[in-house]
Amino acid sequence: MTAASDRLLTVADLAVTYRTRHGDVRAVRDVSLHVDSGETVAVVGESGSGKSTTAAAVVRLLAPAARIERGTIDLLGRDVASASQRELQAVRGLLVGLVPQDPTVSLNPVKRIGEQVAEVLRIHGLADRRVAAVEAVEALRRAGLSDPEIRARQYPHELSGGMRQRVLIAIALVAKPRLLVADEPTSALDVTVQRQILDHLDELTSQTSTGVLLITHDLGVAADRADRIVVMSRGRVVETGTPDEVLGAPREAYTKALLAAAPSLRGARRTPVASAPAADAPAALEVRGLVKDFPLPRSGGGGTLRAVDDVSFRVARGRTLALVGESGSGKSTTARLALRLAEPTAGQVLVGGDDVSHTRGSALRALRRQMQVVYQNPYSSLDPRWTVERIVAEPLRAFGVGDRRERAARAAELAELVALPASVLRRRPAELSGGQRQRVAIARALSVRPDLVVLDEPVSALDVSVQAQILDLLGELQRELGVTYLFISHDLAVVRQVAHEVVVLQHGRVVESGDVEHVFASPQHAYTAELLAAIPGTHRPLAGTAAGPARGGER
Amino acid sequence: MTRYLLRRLALAAGVLLAAYTVTFLVLYALPGDPVSIMYGGESSDVTPDQLDALRAEHGLDQPLVVQYLTQLGHALRGDLGDSVVSGQPVTQLLGSALPPTAQIAGLALLVAVLAGGSLAVVATATRSRRLSGFLLSLPPLGVAIPSFWFGLTLVQWFSFQIPLFPALGNQGFASAVLPAVTLALPTSALIAQMLSRSLLHTLREPYVDTALAKGAGRARVHLRHALRNAALPALTVTGLVVGGLLSGAVVTETVFSRAGIGRLTATSVSAQDIPVVQGVVLVAATVYVLVNLLIDVIYPLLDPRIVTGARRRVAPPTAPSPSPTQAHGSDADQAAARVAVPAGGTR
């Protein structure tokens, strides 16, 4: 390409400040980076590192509270940092396209897909209504959507998350911009979909030598996709270089810590394998032939959707069994059936050897005491108006355990157990970090001394370094308390670190199960192999993953 | 769609039957003798024999169930009985009272939607914080102002000081303006409040950023992307306030001495004219049911996610969430969960 070495974007000494009630927060300070045409530059960092703020600044879509204090953002000779609204409107969509973070909420729900793609061309006067509609269909085809003519007439809610992200890519690229800003474009998607989307994005942008500024928290994605990597921490750029330089031989301590915390398919496992349980001891949880059908709307042809189809597994006491699969694989529904939160269409649930499939009333309530849950998102699973002490002690109150003083004592004990300072008990969830909140959720689950804890994606909403700490905590608690875990996850790297056994689900069916090391080393089923291959970071080995987990302060 | 409509119509009929039954029970079955209430009262110039004769005439000596079924049968044939005071058929009274009220209520609704809607749009679109703050403080004020006072003030200004509109009566369009404006005030305040809240919320949605990233201007983003999404909750409220317009008509029509349903309600209640009161309740319920049925029909036109009839799904079906409580754990919720994650820096 002739324009191969054009400088598209130069960010120099950028500083962005958020005004909050507690004073100014300097989210980005002295950030400098550049993107050439045909080049993919990945900005990696944890939440709060300022990477998304940097991306938003490049298209000037900062939150109202944010202000660019200093610096220039040079986009093909135009300073975006000081541009007027009118100038920005001329630049956005035409010179720089944006692929947003979450495809499920980034499309206007009441407008047809085709209309939303064509709108870019209409805004910039590149085509009249009829031509724009035709080009929109073409852009959808290029973005890799099957039957683009049909998709163009559909509404966003009729498409899956991966398809919606392809639509957003079509929107970003339809006017053939020189630069693409992609803010965590696949973090809301399944790994296999993530790989397809990123592959496709690579292909499209290399054809047109479009420059890409890729924002990601996932070092694996950065390692696989970027020509250069910019590592950010606390609003500053701490390290820049090619993936080999940054990931192969990191100079900065922060980069090393980030690498060490990243779960990987190589490197040490976190949980030492516990001694094999006696074969004849009753399993903490066993399910036999579980089936769950959901009725489909009668107007849509009726029938039923089989979400869980003949699933059987057993979890021995004190061990961890992981349920793995993509969205819609039925793993969460299986967990709900096991917890007796949903009624199975067929099959049995056995807890501690007793058939509880048809337990009702007070017996079911007593059963709940043996089985507790930790949910995925610690930001929404804790009541924001309650103190941590009240949250942690709630199951005790619900089961009428102890008096007020005993419950307070137990709450303090639990805080210590999950390594939270006692002062946290009087605070509310909003004052805690994500990792601390997940510790609170774990303490709550453990308060009634359950035999079984269902962990539903317990770390997928957390940063990698915090993730590592929580996984360590879960391992320690299991060794200390002998509690059994049913661990639900889409992240195979995490599963490998914590689980003893794994059950791989696809379309509600068990396609493979067995010992984690064994399954991961030699997957027997094509789907398991596909899931393993889709994990980012497998194209290029990450250095330092063999090192121990990061011990840094939790944020 | 047809099936959906038929189901909704059946439900509407059910609501009307329930309204009729409850009014019947309240008016006839509660302690107290309807005949002595209607004809006796304090003036005891009616002899007990006459009362008995009246009871027999009105069928009130029959058991309650028989009374109810007889009256319901008449009502279904369009006979709501006669006014106790004037002896006119209730349907005739309602028929003559309905058009003037429909005139001011319809006009009020139009004014309320236009005024409330534009206030909300301007308040959320303006870049001036002062103007936006001022405009957003108006709706609570509008709800707080008593409508009889507002009506009298309007008469004072626009009839006496500047004689633009007649202060009283039912003559022509001009006489409907001031009552309609009076009636529109609380309604428009509610619509403005609801729509501006909803707009402010919608403008923070990620798809608004997507639109801005396309290079769309503020007007385009506001009117073409945000407004249609934001209109949905406001539409629901509009359906509810139509009921408010009817009850507001009682005060407004009294203040402006206009004939209409409101006045008819006021006079028949004070005269304890039970058949008329029952007729008025039935009319109010009908209007309410029809307006909300209309809104239910409009809703899917504005929001394609609301399914009324055939549900098409082209994407491979994912496991549906059987209940909202599952949301925490469901796979589909991962996306939503991730949005909330970045605490600082990211939006």
From TrEMBL, chain A:
Stated name of the protein: ABC transporter ATP-binding protein
Residues annotated as domain ABC transporter: 9-259, 285-532
Molecular function as annotated in GO: ATP binding
Lineage of the organism: Bacteria, Bacillati, Actinomycetota, Actinomycetes, Micrococcales
Xref: InterPro entries: AAA+_ATPase, ABC_transp_ATP-bind, ABC_transporter-like_ATP-bd, ABC_transporter-like_CS, Oligopep_ABC_C, P-loop_NTPase
Any Pfam family matching the protein: ABC_tran
Stored CDD domains: ABC_NikE_OppD_transporters (cd03257)
Keywords on record: ATP-binding, Nucleotide-binding, Transport
UniProtKB/TrEMBL annotation, chain B:
Compositionally biased region (Low complexity): 332-347
Domain of life: Bacteria
Keywords: Cell membrane, Membrane, Transmembrane, Transmembrane helix, Transport
PROSITE patterns in alphabetical order: ABC_TM1
Subcellular location: Cell membrane
Region called Disordered, residue ranges: 313-347
Gene3D superfamilies associated with the record: MetI-like
Domain ABC transmembrane type-1 residues, every copy: 98-299
Secretion signal span: none
Membrane topology: Multi-pass membrane protein
Cell membrane as UniProt keyword: yes
Protein name (record): ABC transporter permease
Native organism taxonomy: Bacteria, Bacillati, Actinomycetota, Actinomycetes, Micrococcales
